[in-house]
Write a structure and sequence with these properties.
By secondary structure, the chain is α/β, with parallel strands linked by helices. The protein is about 30% helix and about 20% strand. It folds into three domains: about 50-345, 4-Layer Sandwich (Purple Acid Phosphatase, chain A, domain 2), CATH 3.60.21; about 360-645, Alpha-Beta Complex (5'-nucleotidase,  domain 2), CATH 3.90.780.10; about 650-700, Roll (Membrane-bound Lytic Murein Transglycosylase D, Chain A).
């Protein structure tokens, strides 16, 4: 009887269990149906996938933090809260954002150019950057053009130590290359159960900008990205990110329009994109219409680790972006530098501290070496470097110097100048190069230098011993140069296309870098192994202490209408709005240059370098500026006043960072008059000024 009761009890318990499980399944089925119905009724799909992307670009070895001049921040500036970026802040910011996004889908990407820009790179050749990038735990990075500055000698060891994929679909290394197959075209990363394809690419003109070497070729970016997209799609990957070091304009106008690309994380142009900063180059993200009928978010995060980009992308179940939103995070005093990283930076910096702190000179005010100025117009740093080179080689008969604006990497603040600051400006270890070339071919070189001014390319020619005017509305390499003059007998004289001139530049430009192929092909008696450029500038600053930076009108931008009028190119450069035009004078600074014996620290050029001029010019290369030409106002038809008044209506070409307020302060001395400029330029929104457009600046009343 007891056994029967036990069996009946067990049987009853089993039946109840089955009933309970059946009820549970029904409830679950009803719940699932309700949820599905709810999803359909609200337009949401449970297949939507959200990905958070953190990113940087163009770090440029800013291991230490930056001051407002984008040079190394001092301890005093750090105490005052005036510093941004640096490895210690970047590591803190990345850790904080990952903690906020814990449990969500996150990728950390770099769009390249982690090399070059500080004494840490000069000393350790990528090992310091690699150490901190590994600590940040990137998911992938695109190779940038500056990763090739020292060829394979620096990049190969970097690839040995790095713990994440380095990408470049258009980078092709042959069997002799030390890179092997370690620069991958793409990588597939699984995040939150979804496969994300990441394709890398570098700018097509890397061979002109850097030194990949004979074993590495750079192929067409669009062709190779497109091919990689098709390969990934064939593997079932439907979410594809292009992480590219190509530049905002091309990334927006070309890369984002490649079918199959869903997101572009970019670099190379140092573009600040933002929804709140009036100086931004565009919105963050910039949404671009892809020909396949969907929108592609494009992002950049300025440069030098001043910002950490962060945005959220929502994909539908087909891998199409439904929405994207975010804003870069400014890594200012609100971000506390990681103390352990600061200690490591101090340890790594010990061997170079003495060199960094070596006092070179002093300057009466800041020397502007900003990217936006030195790549589009005459700038103070361009004048300093070019004048220093001319002073160094004038005894060899050199008359003219050309400096590529992209070779100038920082400004120098007012006061004491250290060797560390000079090396931040000139980090490439270039040497002074001299050569003979005809006036015709020299002008062709200037045409190349002006050919990509709209893109802020580094080839823009800063000069000494020469003055020129240009019209950027003309076709590139076909007449942008409107006048060129050289100093002859104490006066500016039009360049003679048939005459040979002795010219100096740096070895990179002389050998064809930055597109100056004419200098590589047409130069005669070339000598590329002169003294180091940074030492030449340091010695010049010391000889002219205290140094006062200046703009003297050696480069003039003119409008198409002005170019059609009778040539008056010997006039000074039109003043920037709000600045009284400086008197026109020879390109050399007014200070008397010291004799060559004032440079004992400099090694003499190797034998034979003094003999590059078979027929030295009959006049000195650096005449004393005894009788400066009287200044003329910007408008060619106006009379020449002895002391120029405020210009009549003038123009201004927009560069990254311009605002109507700043322009009004320069033009009228009062930013509150910005509406005067705005009213004269109704085609442009005050918070969305298009870089490269020309503004009308009404006369001050």
């Amino acid at each position: 009887m007891g056994e029967k009761l036990a069996v009946m009890f067990q049987s009853s318990r089993g039946v109840k269990q089955v009933i309970r499980e059946t009820k549970m399944k029904k409830i679950a089925a009803i719940a699932a149906l309700s949820a599905s119905t709810l999803g359909l009724s609200t337009g949401m799909s449970f297949a939507d996938y959200t990905l958070n992307i953190l990113h940087i670009n163009d770090w440029h070895s800013r291991i230490e933090s930056n001051n407002k001049y984008e040079s190394t921040c001092s301890a005093e500036e750090e105490t005052k809260g005036e510093c941004t970026g640096g490895a210690a802040r970047l590591i803190t910011a990345i850790a904080q954002e990952r903690k906020k996004l814990e449990g969500q889908n996150v990728l950390l990407l770099s769009a390249g150019d982690n090399f070059q820009g500080s004494l840490f790179y000069i000393t350790y050749k990528g090992k310091t950057e690699g150490e901190f990038l590994n600590q940040m735990e990137f998911d992938a990075m695109a190779v940038g053009n500056h990763e090739f500055d020292d060829g394979e000698a620096a990049l190969a060891p970097f690839l040995d130590m790095i713990k994440f994929p380095v990408l470049g679909a258009n980078v092709k290394a042959n069997a002799q290359s030390r890179l092997g197959d370690r620069v991958k075209p793409s990588v597939v990363i699984e995040v939150g159960g979804q496969k994300i394809g990441v394709i890398g690419a570098v700018t097509n003109d890397t061979p002109e900008l850097a030194s990949p070497g004979p074993a590495v070729t750079i192929e067409d970016d669009v062709k190779l990205i497109t091919s990689e997209v098709e390969r990934l799609k064939g593997e079932g990957v439907n979410k594809i990110i292009a992480v590219t070091h190509i530049g905002y304009k091309r990334e927006r106008d070309v890369i984002a329009k490649i079918p199959g690309i869903d997101v572009v994380v970019g670099g190379h142009s140092h573009s600040l994109l933002s929804n709140t900063d009036p100086k931004a180059e565009g919105p963050y993200p910039t949404m671009v219409d892809n020909p396949d009928g969907y929108k592609v978010p494009v992002v950049q995060a300025a440069s030098y680790s001043k910002y950490l980009g962060e945005f959220k992308v929502v994909f539908d179940d087909n891998g199409v972006v439904k929405q994207a939103s975010g804003d870069p995070i400014h890594l200012d005093k609100s971000i506390t530098p990681d103390p352990a990283v600061l200690a490591r930076i101090k340890e790594l910096g010990a061997p170079i501290e003495a060199l960094k702190n070596q006092e070179v000179a002093e300057t009466t005010k800041a020397i502007d070496g900003s990217r936006e100025n030195c790549r589009t117009r005459e700038c103070e740093m361009g004048n300093l470097v070019s004048d220093a080179v001319l002073d160094r080689v004038k005894d060899q008969g050199v008359e003219i110097v050309i400096t590529n604006g992209g070779g100038l990497r920082a400004s120098i603040d007012q006061g004491t100048v250290t060797m560390g600051e000079v090396l931040n400006v000139l980090p490439f270890q270039n040497t002074v190069a001299t050569f003979q070339i005809s006036g015709k071919d020299l002008v062709a070189g200037l045409e190349n230098g002006l050919s990509q001014i709209e893109d802020g390319a580094g080839r823009f020619p800063q000069v000494a011993g020469l003055k020129y005017s240009f019209d950027k509305s003309a076709t590139a390499n076909a007449g942008r140069v409107k006048s060129v003059e050289v100093m002859q007998g104490g006066a500016w004289t039009p360049i003679n296309p048939d005459k040979d001139y002795l010219v100096a530049t740096n070895n990179y430009v002389r050998q064809g870098g930055d597109g100056y192929k004419v200098f590589a092909d047409k130069a005669r008696n070339a000598y590329d192994y002169g003294p180091g450029l940074e030492q030449v500038v340091a010695d010049y600053l010391d000889a002219h202490r205290p140094y006062t930076p200046k703009l003297d009108g050696r480069i003039t931008e003119i409008t198409a209408a002005a170019a059609a009028e009778p040539a008056q190119e010997s006039a000074q450069k039109p003043a920037k709005p709000g600045e009284a035009p400086a008197p026109a004078e020879p390109a050399k600074p007014a200070e008397t240059a010291p004799a060559a014996t004032a440079e004992p620290a400099m090694p003499e050029p190797p034998a034979g370098s003094d003999d590059i001029a078979t027929t030295p010019p009959a006049v000195p290369a650096e005449p004393a500026p005894a009788s400066p030409a009287p200044a003329e106002p910007a408008k060619p038809a106006e009379a020449v006043p002895a002391e120029p008044a405020k210009p009549a209506e003038s123009s201004h070409v927009i560069v990254a960072g311009d605002t109507y307020w700043d322009l009004a302060e320069k033009a009228y001395g009062d930013g509150a008059k910005w509406k005067t400029i705005s009213d004269a330029n109704k085609d442009y929104e005050p918070r969305r000024l298009p870089v490269g457009a020309t503004l009308t600046i009404p006369a001050a009343n």
